[in-house]
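All the exercises in this workshop are built on plain-text protein records. There is nothing in a record beyond a sequence line and a structure line. A learned vocabulary of local backbone shapes supplies the integers on the structure line. The question running through the whole workshop is how a given chain folds. Here is such a record, shown just as it appears in the course material:

***
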Amino acid sequence: MKKVLVLLLLALALLSLVDAFKKGDKGRSKVQEEEKTKPVSRTRDVEIKTLKKPKTCTRKAQPGNTVAVHYEGTFAEDGRMFDSSRARGDPFWFQLGRMQVIQGWEKGMLGMCIGETRELIVPSNWGYGDQGHPPVIPPGATLKFVIELLDISDAPPPPRDPPPPQREFDAEAILKQMEAAQDTKEEL
């Protein structure tokens, strides 16, 4: 009796598989079909490369520290520079772990020593995401930063200068400054 029941169940299973193949779903379950139609996640992690490391490291950057850095930001795709604290001659101060910078910086700067320089390749999911930061950063942009850690402090960051009075945006002047900074970098 058990053998007949087992054979009957196997026959039903075989018939349903044959029917499924005829319908074109190649035997996939409903769950497998739903998985097939889900968008593939294209998230990547931040790539961190140490370019320069000091001989001794007395203190490493950690959440809560105020840090001063010089940085150059370029588009990973074509190397065009979009921002540079070095070109402005003004180090950038912020507190790690307080979401004052993009997440790629938060992750990529942890454990840095004073005098260390790192290159960060920041995919959009760790940067400005699908919305970008118009008009400078387009949506979905992968960014490259070269960051030099100048100082670590426990004090809050110094106050930033108030923004200058509103004036007309001079894109040509800004592009010339960025090109000059790029030329200076290439001469080194």
Q: What stands out?
A: Residues 4-15, 25-42 have pLDDT under 50 and may be disordered. Strands lie at 47-52, 66-75, 81-84, 92-95, 117-122, 143-153.
